Amino acid sequence: MQRKFITVEGCEGVGKSTQLRLLKDYFEEHGIDAVFTREPGGTPVAERIRAILLDKKLQVSPEVEAALFACARMEHINNLILPSLKQGKVVVCDRYIDSSLAYQGVARNLGIDNVYEINAYARDNCMPELTIFIDMDPANSWRKKNGTVILNDRMEGESQEFHAACYRGYKEMAKREPERIISIVPDEEKYETHRAIIATLKDKGII
Ligand code: TMP
């Protein structure tokens, strides 16, 4: 049986959460047995690591930040992702290794290859069959267009240049791994984007 691990990636405020909600509704309506999860997080230990990583009051060096994201990921892989895949479920994860490659590898300047090494466990044991990249420059995000810029956490509160670098990181990853990473340019009409995502999942034999 084909393993069905899907990740959804993109910059802040580009409508990723809306698309994940629509996807979850679609899976429920069509009786597809799926687990929706997120990173950092997904298990009690990983959620604790998330709280550290997103705490605005804490200063964390880029190296430690990358290592903590990788630790949270290892925990998530072993205790939720792989067990669910073994049960034949589809696993849909909101952010995964490409977030580390874009945010820590490019925006924090650690280098994509170095961050791949830090994530060797995920790289060797649990790579997604498909990654949907919501391809929108954060400078044009829906959230900005709607006039509300919410700086909730330590990562979101980073500079515009930081988020622009994350976007460049994603574009670089999409170029490096075109088989795995499918870029979808979102439409203002959210159902158009949703239909494009469903078409991609069908095309890749996930559903
Ligand atoms: P979110 O779940 O609200 O998107 O917040 C997670 C934040 O953490 C987001 O700004 C992206 C960032 N992040 C990384 O920098 N590296 C990672 O590996 C992951 C999973 C997330």
Show the helix and strand layout.
Elements: E1 5-10, H1 16-29, E2 34-38, H2 44-54, H3 62-86, E3 90-94, H4 97-107, H5 112-118, H6 120-125, E4 130-134, H7 142-145, H8 160-176, E5 181-184, H9 190-203
Parallel strand pairs: 1-3, 1-4, 2-3, 4-5
3D structure, described in words:
- This protein is globular.
- The model has no long low-confidence stretch (mean pLDDT 96).
- Strands 2-3-1-4-5 form a 5-stranded parallel β-sheet, with helices on both faces.
- Helix 2 runs antiparallel to helix 3, helix 3 packs antiparallel against helix 4 and helix 4 packs across helix 5.
- The chain is α/β, with parallel strands linked by helices and 207 residues long.
- It has a single domain, classed as Rossmann fold (3-Layer(aba) Sandwich).
- The chain binds thymidine-5'-phosphate.
Name a few traits of the molecule:
single chain; 207 residues; alpha/beta; Rossmann fold; 5-stranded parallel beta sheet; 9 helices; 5 strands; 53% helix; globular; binds thymidine-5'-phosphate
